[in-house]
Write a structure and sequence with these properties.
By secondary structure, this protein is an alpha/beta fold. The chain contains ten helices and 14 strands. The longest helix is centred in the last third of the chain and has 24 residues. InterPro entries: Glyco_trans_2-like, Nucleotide-diphossugar_trans.
Length: 335
């Protein structure tokens, strides 16, 4: 018989994070199963786990398959009603699992759900990767309740609700196992970054719901695998955002925004060049080239993908940079 919940931590060279956070996860996740899937780490993560936590199920992935491929591989060896995809740099809280599971048990149309994500280093504030649930604007730029671009809101109880959102963060992602497999798992072509948005978008296009649960809280360090300044991270973010749009929009929708998005990416290229971040700027050019090659593998969505109510119908760039709307509530985004 399958377990109710399996918490799966995907690790890549995160020995220090495992030492720091794994005891906390084990303490707060009982009686549920905790599993570590190692993505072919080159540090001593595996030795550390085998010597210090021999009781934990360890899945050894033969090569680094990235976030998406790593979890797809791991879940071949996991039996549970709910999977919890948990980053190795996350500190959990007491009873962090139950509120989310109760919500998903009550509403079987919820395919994925996230808890409140607060910053580990500044615990009164939301954290960049997910905050209080993810949204997207009509040009495909993701943002969150509690975090728009680099501005993080202080958690003052303004997002303690349970709410339908557009996407849930991969830093701590509860997924109904049945839906995970029926929806085609995570797209391994993404490798890392935005694969959870792609999964959530595919789910919504199939009539499923994505939720945020404000009654559960975890604390995320962030940037534990790829530094925010990394040219590779820049490359993945730009390339995968184009793949995200190409896959989930109709051809008509994609053509409508393609020119505007290209211009905005060109502006980002110039900005990075001006400040001397030449490697990051080159990453944008490479992202565009590789997107054009990779897009041939995909067929575009037959239905329109921007029809969901969680899509912000205006530009988040204009709202933030020109109008000065730094918080979600100021957007007057009515759902």
């Amino acid at each position: 018989m399958a377990n109710k919940v399996a918490v799966v931590i995907l690790n890549y060279n995160g020995r220090n994070y495992l030492e720091q956070f794994l005891p906390n996860v084990l303490e707060n996740s009982s009686p549920y199963q905790v599993i570590v899937a190692d993505n072919a780490s080159t540090d001593d993560s595996v030795h550390f786990l085998e010597s210090q936590f021999p009781e934990i199920q360890l899945i050894k992935i033969p090569e680094n398959l990235g976030y998406a491929g790593g979890y797809n591989y791991a879940f071949k060896y996991v039996e549970a009603e709910y999977y919890v995809l948990l980053n190795s740099d996350v500190e959990t809280t007491k009873s962090w699992i139950e509120p989310v599971v109760e919500l998903m048990d009550e509403n079987t149309e919820i395919a994925a759900c996230q808890p409140k994500i607060r910053s580990f280093h500044n615990k009164k504030y939301f954290e960049y990767a997910g905050a209080a649930g993810g949204y997207i604007d009509f040009l495909g730029y993701p943002f969150c309740r509690g975090r728009i671009f680099s501005t993080l809101e202080k958690d003052q109880g303004q997002y303690d609700d349970n709410r339908s959102v557009f996407w849930a963060t991969g830093a701590c992602l509860f997924v109904r196992a049945k839906d995970f497999h029926e929806l085609g798992e995570l797209d391994a072509e993404f490798f890392a970054h935005m694969e959870e948005i792609d999964f959530c978008w595919r789910a919504k296009n199939r009539g499923k719901q994505i939720y945020y649960c404000g009654k559960s809280t975890v604390y995320h360090v962030g940037g534990g695998t790829l530094n925010t300044e990394s040219p590779f991270k820049t490359y993945l973010n730009f390339r995968n955002n184009w793949l995200l749009l190409y896959k989930n929009l109709s051809q008509k929708e994609f053509v409508k925004i393609k020119f505007k998005r290209t211009i905005l990416d060109y502006i980002a290229f110039i900005q990075l060049t001006v400040v001397g971040k030449y490697s990051n700027a080159k990453s944008i050019s490479k992202a565009h080239r590789d997107f054009r090659k990779m897009s041939k593998k995909y067929s575009q969505n037959e239905k329109e993908g921007f029809t969901h109510p969680e899509v912000f119908s205006r530009s988040i760039i204009i709202a933030y940079f020109l109008k000065g709307f730094k918080s979600f509530t100021k957007l007057k985004f009515t759902l």
